[in-house]
Amino acid sequence: MTEREIVSFVKQLGISYGKNKTAPKSTKLSLVSLDDGFKDVLNEKWPSWKNWGEKHVSTTEQSYLDKFEKNDLIYLSADSDNVIQELEEGKAYIIGGIVDKNRHKNLCQDKATRQGIKTAKLPIEDYLNLSTRKVLTVNQGMI
């Protein structure tokens, strides 16, 4: 991602955290694969991230493959053939931390397939009439 896209992603994380924290039914977010370089960006662009409560967010350097059982993972991808109508209790839904302005079609889908992870897309077309690709930002996927 470019510097501008990374800044956009950090802002989207902040929005996701804020919306989740105040939601009537919040969930625990897991920020995974959080290396020192990304922590530096977070510290610079959104320093209050360190104050996000453990009730709402867990952070780890581990990959989602190390943190969760593979059978419990579902990678959300606009390119999936599987449309998800309801979230399943006990499943971990992966929202890829990518801001690419649709430059990389199938990026998340291909990654999940290589890793043997189920994929699904949200039923956007059932509720919205969009003339463009049905790709959401990180915070839109969270909400």
Describe this protein with a few key phrases.
single chain, globular, 143 residues, 12% strand, Alpha/beta knot, two-stranded parallel sheet, alpha/beta
Any overview of this molecule?
The protein has 143 residues and is of the alpha/beta class. The protein has one domain (3-140): Alpha/beta knot, CATH 3.40.1280. The protein is built from 6 helices and 5 strands, in the order H-E-H-E-H-E-E-H-E-H-H. The protein has helices at 3-22, 36-45, 64-67, 107-115, 124-127, 138-142; strands spanning 29-31, 57-59, 73-76, 92-95, 118-120. The model has no long low-confidence stretch (mean pLDDT 81).
How is the secondary structure organized here?
Elements: H1 3-22, E1 29-31, H2 36-45, E2 57-59, H3 64-67, E3 73-76, E4 92-95, H4 107-115, E5 118-120, H5 124-127, H6 138-142
Brief summary:
36% of the residues lie in helices and 12% in strands. It is of the alpha/beta class and 143 residues long.
Please tell me what the overall shape is. globular
CATH architecture: 3-Layer(aba) Sandwich
- In DSSP terms (H or I, runs of 4 or more residues), the helix count works out at 6
Percent helix: 25-40%
